[in-house]
Amino acid sequence: MYTLGIDIGSASSKAVLMEDGEKIRRHFVIQAGTGTSGPDKLLDLMFRDGPVSRDDIARTVVTGYGRYSLESADGQISEISCQAKGIHHLLPGARTVLDIGGQDVKAISIGPRGNVLSFYMNDKCAAGTGRFIDTMAKVMEIDVSQMGDYDEKSEDPVTVSSTCTVFAESEVISLLSQKKNKEDIIRGLHRSVVSRALGLMYRTSMEEDFVLTGGVALNKGVLRALKEELDRPVYITEEPQISAAVGAALFAWEQANKK
User: What's the whole-model pTM score?
Assistant: First the structure.
């Protein structure tokens, strides 16, 4: 039995094709989220020259900000539940998840069965999110994918004190005018992101294993800063952007088997 999980976020769209609620047969990520053609392009990719056709899908579940925008789906489930379920499937030992997405940050405590015990979310401000990092990369005229490499070369990190994206942008411009190295500014920015995110994480039960997920998990500078602050291991999945879509595909499989 094939099920499809789709996660339509603010900045990207993700899809996972799963077989029998266990094996991931195919997955895609497109950097186009809610309100764009991203979800339609995602489905075209999924079924183009793929192992199955649309008619082979037993059930489709959508999660994320744009979950109600895909009318062809069979159901919608919140990204909190899908994230917990997907992470549990990929990393069964996970108990505390920090999900840094395009426009929000979530800290989730999950139980031994992948159930949500509690969660805390910041979706009122872009500071500490992927959008914050994207904005700072543009200010420094580098590609956001290079942020982790710059961070690695830092020898004298600066402190970025502003928690507001607008003020932080002004602060970074000021630091650049003072001839501060981009490497040191970026290390400071990553520490700022982690410091803000930990404000949510510390409200959870803080049980190991700790997992970082979301697109920002691809930034090794943020991962490094989080490990330093927690002073303990932090894990990421092989594809940290698709875990919520994995959870959606698993929910779809459970729902299909109840019929």
Answer: 0.94
